[in-house]
Amino acid sequence: MSCKKPWKNPEDPCNGIMNESPPSKVGIVLADKSSGNNLILSGGLTAADLKLTLSGSTTPLTNWKIINTPGSPLNGILELAVFHEKAGEYRYKIEAKGLQSVEFSYTIKQVESDNPCKIFAYPIEGLKAINWNFVPLEIGNKIHPTGIKILID
């Protein structure tokens, strides 16, 4: 008995691939401008206290979570999974209990890939807050390439 699957073409490097890569992730920290404290952690906010929408829509998104791992450097980060495969700017709004709304955006570019199974890649660029000041997100003395810390008054 053989483990070879007769429907697979061994010469096709893309044969049998269901998903080449996980979605990209955007990390957002909501921070108090004067103290620098993470407002999700210090305010005790949970996912139930937050609503994330794509700009121009009122339908809440579900492709995000708050990382809740005490002791982890990622604890208290709002993490958004990005599934876009279309170039353009994407704008979001975060509404949080007891805080003013936060808007942020990023751009997806379409670039050619060297991967024969995935002709194009869709990297995230230009992540920024729109209505608040922000700084790059630093985790363990390293800049998170797709993360920002939004400074709220």
Query: Which structural class fits the helix and strand makeup?
Result: mainly beta
Distance between the termini: 68 Å
Q: What spatial order of strands do you see in the largest sheet?
A: 3-4-1-11-10
Mean pLDDT: 89
Q: Name the CATH architecture.
A: Sandwich
The shape, in one word, is elongated
Main sheet attributes: strand count, strand direction, barrel closure: 5 strands, mixed
CATH topology name, in short, is Immunoglobulin-like
Number of DSSP helical runs = 1
Estimate the strand proportion. 35-45%
CATH top level class name: Mainly Beta
Helix content: under 10%
Order of helices and strands: EHEEEEEEEEEE
Q: How many extended strands?
A: 11
What can you see in these coordinates?
The protein is mainly β and 153 residues long. It has a single domain, classed as Sandwich (Immunoglobulin-like). The protein contains 1 helix and 11 strands, in the order E-H-E-E-E-E-E-E-E-E-E-E. The strands form 3 sheets. Strands 3-4-1-11-10 form a 5-stranded mixed sheet, with no helix packed on it. Strand 10 and strand 11 form a beta hairpin. It is elongated and about 60 Å long.
What is this structure, in a nutshell?
The chain has 153 residues and is mainly β.
Topology:
Layout: E1 24-32, H1 39-42, E2 50-54, E3 64-66, E4 78-82, E5 88-96, E6 102-108, E7 111-112, E8 120-121, E9 124-129, E10 133-139, E11 142-152
Key words describing this protein structure:
mainly beta, Immunoglobulin-like, single chain, 1 helix, 153 residues
